[in-house]
Specification:
11 strands
Length: 289
Amino acid sequence: MSGFLKNILYVLVSFMLGIASQYYFFEKSNEIQKLDVRTNFDSNYLSKPKFPDSKVEIKVDGDTKESIGILEISLVNFSNTVLKDIPVIIEVTPKRGGLFSYLSHFAHGEKGVLDLVEISKPYEFVNGTHRFFYTVKSFNRSDGDDIGMKLGILFEGDQKPDVTVSAVGLSTRDFDIEHSPARTKANREAWIMFITVLAGLLLFMFAIFVPLLSRLTSPLDKIISKKNASETFKIMRLDPYYASLTDNDLKQHVADVLYKRQRNWWNDKSILGKWLLGMKGPEFDDYRF
């Protein structure tokens, strides 16, 4: 029984430590300042209507285009800190053999506010890579998917380019809503609820099933007690010290000694210990054979 109790306590303590460690790493991960990078690629953002004899045209700098695509690069701050005056460099590199012709671009901060984003250096195209340089005045922390900055690039082409974002003093990672503190908090609360329910079930099992099992196995315990008494009688019968006692007197003596020993053991048990044993103390008849 004591071994079973130790196992239950071990499981409960392990669960509690699991909750504590998850909470600790959650808080530490939010202290690490990272930007989540989300991209949206649409090669047919604007396309020429396909009507017979249509006079509708799409022109960029006087050149007619069949369609125009858009590449949106959004930055989200899931850390626990509001970031200020962050220099950001965004590099867009078309894949080898892929069609991606830059046409124009725009940028804004949170909720479309233009003043939150300043151009720190003019756009440049060097060695096949488009580079955009900005200083973001404020990256408010987000519990959802609210963006702190968005760069939109209008292009002509059909293949998504590679995107690299660099921010001074920060690391970046691909956007995942699971990085959101709100989502992580919800997951953590779900874990706590699960562990609480599981701990409750274990305690219920421990408080109800174990005493019931003790009650159900009491006939077997009685058989074992009688067997032990019988073995003790055989050993004592060979001892000359008890030669003066008849078999019946010696059996009575053995039963009395074993019963008193077990009774003392029972009396030393706590209420919880007695409950787990089915509240059934030893009886003198358990040792009579």
